[in-house]
Amino acid sequence: MLVVPRRASLIGWVGSTDHKRIGVRVATYAFGFFLLSGAFALVMRTELARPGLQVVSENTYNELFTMHGSGMFFLVMAPLALALGMYFVPLQIGASDIAWPRLALIGDWLIPLGGVTMFSGFLTDHGAAKAGWTAFAPLSDIDRSPGYGMDLWIFGGLLATAGVLLLAISVLTTIVRFRAPGMTMLRLPVFTWSMVATCLLVITSFPALIVALSLLFVDRHFSGVYEGASGPVLYQHLFWFYGHPVVYVIFFPFIGAVAEVVAVFSRRRFFGYHALVLSLLVFAALSMSVWAHHMFATGRVTNQYFALTSTILLVPAGVEYFDLIGTMIGGSILLSSAMLFAVGFIVLFLIGGLTGIIVASPPLDYHVHDTYFVVGHFHYTIFAGSLFGFFAAVYYWYPKVTGRMLRERLGKLQFVLYFLGANLTFFPMLVSGYEGMPRRVADYENIHDLSLMNMLSTIGAFTIALGTLVFLWNLRVSSRKPVPAGNDPWQGHTLEWWTTSPPPPHNFDSLPPVRSYSPLYDRRLGES
Amino acid sequence: MKVALPFVAWAALLTVLAAVLWVWSSDHVPPAIFTAAASVAWCVGLYALLRPFPRAVRRAPDLSLASGLVALAIAMLLLSALVGEWLLLIGGGALVAGLVWLARELRAERRVR
Ligand SMILES: [Cu+2]
Q1: Which of A204, A232, A272, A359 lies 20 to 30 A from A298 at CA?
Q2: ipTM of model
Q3: pTM, rounded to two decimals
């Protein structure tokens, strides 16, 4: 048997195929890109605090919003989603290793290489890419986006997307092939099921972006693939075929983590397991069929089909909410930091979902298309939703990963700052967008409530930044004065809590019998 | 079959949704993209069907520097399109070296097992 040398060498850090190290590594640099892309958002909010140009030029502003969005999607949220799966799926299913660890390791390294490539655009003559994270043709063509920045953006996007794709292939194959004895598909923990849906989406939708971006490079340097009347529409089809599902890629893992947190901190078995599994699969399939709702305003798509499928998404989403709330009802709820973030996720994602119904309806979408309403809507889903879910996962699983507890008080302080900050930032965007403020502008006129709404958003953004500092402080405090976590500080339900914290390289010395999706909960029931 | 069921069902669901779009859409591009994705989903389903999970492979993780080299080589090959031919040569060399090294790692691992 091959065993990783125990010494924490640099070689071990960069070259270990241990899924736990891969997971931590991906999460670490994704968090680094989060801080960087978040800092860009702060500069933008400072610029927008008052009408007129104060801080940056329009050109720089274009670079900032492009790199903020690209960073958050390609280098932060999608990698974080897969990092969680990489670390916890093998533990939850009782596996000692992942499938195709070397493939996963290649993916692991492609992501930061992509990130460095993308951000190195700032060092080139024309600056970084400035065609938005969507890089729509013809805005991204060689005439309108000259210079290497756009090309580096394309290559960065390709590398990072390919990296996430490889991680997903490894995680999904692990689930198919490496489950412990007794761990049937209908005994997979809820989080692992959410990763099944996630990986399916990645594997079927991410190739579309790889095609779109490769063709964009060809378009820029060889022949005009996206020229003519139908070219830009073709690009949008390819892009959004990835661009909508990716939103679910960065949603499912976090709702899976939230489901685990809600069950554990309600001291109940997860309610409605089978309905959740079914709804996840239907949700994932439907979310592959809605991409052109981003293109209603092009007038070139079958609006009825895409509006219909987009609206049907409400049904599986409703099932998931029903299950989450059903788990809490009748449970003895412990409001830990993890649980607070989970509840925050459930509440705030609802606002994201409900504003989503508005933009899923073509006539309403025409009114708010390309305005701050859309920006507010998707930040409610991605920041106030998914990122809250990520922090629920962090507060829940950090003890397992490090063997140390995070400080609860600091966690609650972070939650309060994030909750206030998120609403203060993104709710005014819904108002200003409805009043007609276009997105992707460095300046705006002082009409209606735009000044007030923008000032509120800016204050909110800095409140979020303060919350992030509290989190970093929490990390520091917990590593300086460690409080040992033990194997199972929360009385968890799933197998990861059976082994030591942190787990040994081979994960488990022994495994308990698996007779349901919550084997440790069964065991405690048997004991009492 | 049990393992493959959710994957096959998922691929079937995509196929149905794509079929509806073929009927509904006058433009062929959207349903064609969707059909391509559905066929990828069928490949996943087929894999799950044909490769039932092996009897517990208990193996511990390993070190692989070759994987990092392959990743670096891929990045270099892409960037050579901007930087020039010299990077294409270095990247190509690194890729070949990385793949050979990777093969040796895998062979060593198999021998130990
Ligand atoms: Cu969408």
Answers
A1: A204
A2: 0.95
A3: 0.95
